[in-house]
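Newbie here. three chains, one complex. Structure please?
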Amino acid sequence: MRHRRTRPDALLRPPGAGTTRALDAIWQVVGAIPRGRVSTYGAVAHAAALPGRARQVGYALRVAPAELNLPWHRVVGAGGRIVFPRSSRQHLEQARRLRAEGVRVRDGRVAAAALTDLDGL
DNA sequence: GCCCTGACCGCCA
DNA sequence: ATGGCGGCCAGGG
């Protein structure tokens, strides 16, 4: 076969890649957040070699395939704040999941102690 | 290609 | 603590 321009993983993903790298990096970082610990969009972006692109982390989680079973609830906004609107379905769901892991959630915020650094990833 | 919309963030009034 | 603003950048229309 002379030209194989499609990698195996590319076949499992819709065409028009290019951003795929960033998404994979983000998903990998999120998947590495330990149970019972939390990180922020900004920190995840940084760890995924995408400093300053916190929004892309939000997008990555938004479009993440359910099959990946990512612990999306472990990602919160700066300062440990749950970014979804107070009474939204998602906010409640995230708080519920976090509490289920023993994370204290008070007033839409997680305790600073729950934040993890995720240094080398 | 332009414009708008975001699971964001830091700064400043 | 709170709200506004600009910066960031990928998608979708």
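Moderator note: Residues 40-42, 45, 52-62, 72, 75-78, 82-84, 90, 94 of chain A lie near DNA strand B (CB under 10 Å from a C1'). Chain A has a mean pLDDT of 85. Thread marked as resolved.
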